[in-house]
Every structure is written in structure tokens, then in C-alpha cells.
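Hi Q.,

Before the meeting this afternoon, I wanted you to have the nicotinamide-adenine-dinucleotide prediction in hand. No need to reply - just skim if you have a minute. The sequence and ligand are here:
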Amino acid sequence: MRILLCGGAGYIGAHAYVVLVERGHDVVVADNFSNSSPGVLARLRQITGRPVPFQPLDLRDRDAVTGFFAHQAFDAVVHFAALKSVGESCERPLDYFHNNIGGTLNLLHGMREAGVERLVFSSSATVYGDPDHVPVREDARLQVTNPYGRTKLVMEELIGDLCRSDAGFHAANLRYFNPVGAHASGLIGEDPTGIPNNLMPYICQVAVGRRDRLSVFGGDWPTVDGTGVRDYIHVMDLARAHADALDFLVRERRSLTVNVGTGQGVSVLQLVEAFAQAAARRIPYQVVARRPGDVAEVYADPSLAQRTLGWRAELGVEAMCRDAWRWQSQNPQGYPVA
Ligand code: NAD
Ligand code: UD1
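Predicted structure with the ligand bound:
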């Protein structure tokens, strides 16, 4: 298939690019680099051994999006492009609505005009908020606690309406749990700008000496060791789920909303310990107050993905830490600045 990856220069998109090319697809990356580096394209070329078709594109520019689709034929779109910082979304909700919801509407409009009828959308476990029980199934109550989460929920709903209005249009909403790790080459990985919000990149930066110590947000949660429990998923397993979702859309001609997680809960301290082993170095930390908006425990019931996509996670916490550390130690400051 000829596939457009919107936001394909970002962390998850770059890994999905590698998997889709390996599966024999013809893949084009479109991005505005608002949260990524052009340096990723050279790395993708190095990994795949071929030039990376790239289109500069800002999804907020409706005319540019429509114009782009008018000159290109695609069988499917994988849509990663979004702003994703929870804290920032609370400070600047309109920017999040404009970029994530407005950008997606422009994309859907462009796809419709051009007759592109398959979409894989990056949703998030954030749509479950503070779940009533774990593991979380797809039919759990949906509830959002911040503007970022709301953009994901709204987009799932809008995409659902579009699918219902047009029997030919099919979408797979993938609800990612906590993506971590990197491609085994160490050439691509997560490269956050500024102070990392998420646990694994913070640990990586402590390990490589960019930060003194990790703050563990709360030691009094009702969990195995008092620290927050999440479902960390290796980004290469997650990348594979996109290829499987595209195959599903072609094969089954129907839409789907599915969890992409391992089904295993891992605490903050368990992840710190696993990372320390993988990197063979201490990770200094101190337990501090809980982070506002955090929840105790969230992990997936991934059985629907297994039944529908034939997908299950294969890589465990050890591989996640080993590969994250390979990326970080080979690229202490992230991608080279051009
Ligand atoms: P990322 O920021 O690394 O990648 C997103 C990419 O989209 C970036 O390259 C950015 O430049 C691009 N982009 C943003 N707005 C754009 C626009 N208007 N036009 C064109 N390009 C634009 O993030 P990621 O971690 O790779 O996440 C990918 C997707 O998965 C996002 O939609 C995110 O909300 C979702 N998600 C991520 C996580 C996570 O923990 N990383 C978890 C759940 C869901
Ligand atoms: C965060 C987002 C969520 C998003 C998800 C994607 C918030 C409130 N939620 O969730 O919307 O979908 O990322 O991956 O930002 N932790 C520390 N110290 C740190 C960082 C994190 O102790 O410096 C703890 C957290 O309290 C949590 C765990 O580590 O228990 C994981 O945190 P994080 O990586 O931010 O992911 P989520 O909280 O699951």
C-alpha cells in the first residue's frame, strides 16, 4: 500500500515508518517538525537503506492539506500528528484544540476529497481517565481529565461519526498505553524538548547525566510498592500494531477501537530497577508529592487486539530499558542539530 504518515517524524511515527517499510509498503512522511527534528530522516534512511519520501506539511493549513492530497494517491493514512503534553494543554487549551482537532478535521477533509478511505489514528489510554478497574477493556467508561485527553476523545467520536456516515470509510483507533524504548539500532528514539514529562525519558536523562535525580511522584499510592503502575509498551511492538491495523482495515472492511498495551502493570520503582540493571548504573531518585491529575494504576486488557489484529506484545521491560538506554547513550543530546 501507499501510506501517508502524518506526524511521521515524531517518536512513534518514526518507528512505525521502519516497520511499514520492512513490510513492503511505500511510505511518505509528512510533518511540520513542531515537536521533532529533521535529523530523524537521515537516521530512517540509514536504517532502511533507502531515501525517505518527505513532505513538509502543517495540518492546521487546510488548503495545503487539500492541495497535497490532490497531487498524491494514498491507500491509507496513519495519523500521529498531535501536541501531547498534558500540562501544556491545561495552560494553552485552544492551541491543543486548534492543532489536534482542527488539524485532524483538515486531514479528514483532504482524505475525503481525495477518496482515501482508511485511517489509523493515534488515540491514548488517557481516554479512560481514572479507570474503575484494571485491566481496562475498550468498553470501560470514558472520561477525560485534561484538554489533551479531550482532544483524543473528541477525535475518536468525530472519526466514529464519519465512519457511520460513509460505509466505505474505515478507521482503527489505537489506544496506546505507555510507549517506551527505541529501535534496536539505537539510531532513533524518544527525544523530548525541554524537561521530560514522562517517566522513561526522564530516567534516560538521569542515567546519561543530563539530570541529577528522578522525582518519583508519590510513594503512597495503593499499589504493589506505593508508586504509580502503568502498562509500558515497547515502541517496536506498538509500531507493529499499526501495520497489523492497516492489514485489518483492508481485510475486514470495518472500523475498530482497540487497546495497544502489554497487559502487565509495572511500578515506577520496578521500572527504575529494571533500567538500572539494563544500563548497569545507579538511577538516583527521591520520592516527592503526587503529581496532580495522576492515577494509581492503569494497564490494558489487550485481548481484543489479539483477537482482531492477531497482535500481541512480544518485548518485555528488559528489552524496553535496554533499547531506551542504547538510544540515549549513543545520542546523549538526542538528534544532532542540523
Ligand atoms: P511526537 O510529538 O514525537 O510526534 C508527533 C509528531 O507530529 C511530531 O513530529 C510533530 O512535529 C508532528 N505534528 C504535530 N502537530 C502537527 C501539525 N499540525 N502538522 C504536522 N505535524 C504535526 O509524539 P509521539 O509520542 O510520537 O506521539 C504520536 C501520537 O501518539 C500523538 O498523537 C500522541 O498524542 C499519541 N500518543 C502518544 C503517547 C506517548 O506517550 N508518546 C501515548 C498515547 C498517545
Ligand atoms: C502521561 C499523561 C497521559 C498520556 C501518557 C502517555 C499525564 C498526567 N498523563 O501519563 O495523558 O496519555 O503520559 O504516555 O501527564 N512519574 C514519576 N516521575 C516523573 C515522571 C513520571 O514518578 O518524572 C510517574 C508518574 O507519576 C506515573 C508514571 O511515572 O506513575 C508514568 O508517568 P508518565 O510517563 O508521565 O505517564 P502517565 O502518567 O501514564
